[in-house]
Write a structure and sequence with these properties.
Number of strands: 16
Radius of gyration: 25 Å
Shape: globular
Distance between the termini: 25 Å
Oligomer: single chain
Length: 598
Amino acid sequence: MMKQKWIILAGEEAGPRSNKMGGIWNVIDAQATTLASLISSRTIREVKLPKILVVGPYYGHNDADWNKGLGRITDMDEFDDRDIDDELSSAINAVKLSGIEIKCGIKKIDDVEVVYLMFDTENFYNVTTEHKGTRMSLENKIKAEAYDLIGIDSMTYERMGNGPEYTHYLNLSYAISEFIRTLININEDQIKRLDTPITELSSPVAPRMQVCLHCHEFGTFYTIARLKQLHVPVNTVATFHATLPGRSAGHRSIQKIRNNDSTFPDGVAANMTKLESLAIYADIATAVGNSTGQEVKLFYGIDAILVRNGIIVEDNENEQVNKKQCRTKIQTFLSKNLQQFHGGKQISPESILPMFSISRIEIENKGYPDLLDALVLLDHMIKTKILEGHIKKNVRVVCFVIAAQGPKTDVPEGFPINLPNEVLVGEELRLQQMIVDRELECSKLTDGRRCVSAVLYPQWISDHDKGLNLTPNELMAGCIAGIFPSRYEPFLLTGLEAGSVGTPSIISKVCGCSDALKTLEHKVTGLGGVIVVDNIDLSYNESMVDYALAMDYFVDAYLHDMTKYDQICEEAYLVAKEMNWESPTLQYYELLTGVMTT
């Protein structure tokens, strides 16, 4: 009898879309969606079609998230709740008997179903169970077992400042691995054995199915380690989107690679790096960029295969119309609120050129100082062109710097043009002060002291964010360009996401996708729709000049040659479309299953 094949995609962020572009959820959801389409189209040729599961955490209410500041709440409304097949249902019900709550939803892609299982780990400390003859909470059992299996010292790790985060990852990984163990041992006799302590199971039962597990990022790597230590027959892939030591080193990570310096930077959490090191238990490790692969080898001694991320690009015949509508909404909002809250002569909406940058609020790693310094240079360039008569004197550039500690529910009218310090927290305050120090506040636009401004947008972007009230795609589509000057960026999806709505972008050479762009052919003369600035080998000043020149290139095309600007937007779109999810999904499928797809 032919085995049923299960493809399970796991991640700590595997839940409803968050506000941020380029998150792990985007990656997992895109991979699942693309895989389903490839199966439906029979691009993946299997006699018995594989089944797809996406697994991750469930946050049922505002305080359920281990990171209270993020305030994530899992929304399952986008999924169908119709019945699932008996085999899967039996495994879910069996796992629930052990105190692990699972929320289930289904999404149909063409004629293929993708099942989403969200694990609620919040109350594991309240679930009573047994370990080695001693009654204890499920949470303590998980930690004791992890010590028995791998030697993970949870007594030390849980007392660290990030103990709740560590405990969440361990609990989630245990829940996912226990579900997989149950799924493989699914007949009635095997279900009865689930109450047997794992140490008394002498050998694995021959599976009636092939389970292939793909874990994205370290938060779920213990899933792989536990399954391997329990000798559960699972094909496993662990993907690094970054490394914790690399993130901590930030822009210094390049020098550490060049110096073969494998020491961890100060401040790297030992409990998190321990979880990240568990990728050694995977059959195969992958990295999304060349530099990330070098970090994985440097810090953990693991050889990782390069599999880049991609993006799903939807065809949209009305894209240009939508871009104009979104831009008009942004321009009108800026014109009205600049005059209302900062006085002076009202700037005509069509004279305002919006740009954007968006990422986590890692100020140095994401290159925000570089962005602001480049905007100062751009201001001088535009003022010079105005004096020379090449640009109309009322032109103003507004760059939204979208970076937030977390979502905000109480913001003032006119936000973010009206942005009192009382609204800001943590690093948002420092970033706003950096804008003030460079005199880039938008209040200086109305009287002409500045022609270029940076506007901090400390909010999770949505159509109800009480600011522009646009979705991320609408905001990107309405801006004339995106700029992402990261000093540490393992891949960078945001540049591709901007391109997917026809918005050109500027990225740094350090971004993991910059190497891939070298192989793409320009569709338009000039710098093109995606400009790469060398922030590795050039001096700081030279890089800043290049960022400013790249922004000026888009401004000039938009103002003076709309035909060329439309071609630039088309090239950005084509670059995103060419770097789609099909190739990486097929690569992952081959690595997971051993089945060649070409």
